[in-house]
Amino acid sequence: MRKRRRARLESDPFAPVEDTANADAVAAKEAKRAAGEARAVAGPGGSAESAPRSKSLLARAREGLGGKAARRSAATGGKAAGGSSLGEARAASNYARSRAALQAAEAGPAAAKAGFGGRLAAAVSTAAPVLGGVLAGVAAFVAASLILSTLLGAIAGFWQDEQDKAMIEGLPGFITYDMVLEALECQEEYGHPAGCTIAQVICESGQGDAMSQLATRDHNLFGIKWASSFASCPEVAGKASWATHEEVGGQVVTVMADFTVFKSDADCIRFRSRVFLQNSRYADNAFIKEAIADHDSDKMAEGLKDAGYATSSEYVESLKSVMRTYNLYRFDGMGVDDFEKGAAGGDAIVQAAYSQLGVPYAWGGSTPGVGLDCSGLTQYCYRQAGISISHYTEDQLKELTVVPLSQARPGDILYKYGHVAIYVGGDEYIHEPRTGDVCRKATGISYFTCALRYTG
After folding, report:
1. Using CA atoms, how far apart are residues 368 and 296, in angstroms rounded to an integer?
2. pLDDT at residue 379 above 90?
3. How far apart are CA 294 and CA 319, in angstroms?
4. CATH of 336-453, one of 3.90.1720.10, 1.10.3720.10, 3.40.50.1370, 1.10.10.10
5. pTM score of the predicted model
């Protein structure tokens, strides 16, 4: 029966529609099976790797539909237009199901790609908080590093400022480290005693705890008037008119005058030595020559007045009074290196002395914070600067270098027979006085005979 039927199908191109429909059904089943396999391979979350196999199955499904369409065309070719039959309806139904299967198969690779994209998006979404946390951590670390660097820089700057303050211990607050340093450099280069230079700044520009407007605005520390020849000097910025008081015939009068404007305080100090005092009226003055040879600030003050630097009859005494008050003589003959090195060590010594204020006097005592005698205090203070000296007064006299009181620097030991103290600047010192007393600050270094200094 099957053989006869197959023979009919093969030999009769115009076989009944029922037979054609049966062939259509077989083709539809084949297409549906192929589409199903494609969906199974791809799946709703299929990976991109499954796409090639899906395409193969899709081709098979298309072949099935193509064959089915050809057979349907052959089966219906002899029918009149608009004709219908149960076979045609069944064929249309089968075609619709096959078409749906084909569309499902075509959707397989797209679904696979969509599934991969979805998983990638999910992975990125999951990693985003972690990545955000890492980036936030890096940003926080960078910010913390910047803050730490700034803080360390600020701390370093603070301690440098503190050290600079210690280097000019006992001077008015407006006398800066740079001023003293420039005065010492000019002393080394031109010979003008630094003590008198600083005294002139205080007398000419000082107004209580501050400086005059001529000094603060125009950096003119010595009241130097304008001359056209100054215009080409590298230290000079220009000129400005100011009202000034001058003594004329014993009377103080106010006049307007042009004064030199300098680029900085240090420039003004250098100009004084490099240009102003090189004028023959000063350079050839006998007092000034003697002052340079002997490193003598008193002689320098006398030479300035003698050469006509100031009109005030009390100018010399004013300078000398300032030099005594602030012990500016200690800068005469001092080198820049001595100032920088010695002052740093002197700071540690002075700070150590301040730390023992109020500690009871104890004869032979050497325990800081508990009990010290005068030489025990000086020994302890020097130890804080890394300097080892003996305990007793007369031994310290032998071990250290004797210098005049007028040249004492903060940190030096002040000596008189049987007693020593730490010089802290100005006219002040710290010492352990006697039994029943405590470590205290006192005024009047003239009480002592000389100063003692460690020179290595």
Report:
1. 40
2. yes
3. 18
4. 3.90.1720.10
5. 0.49
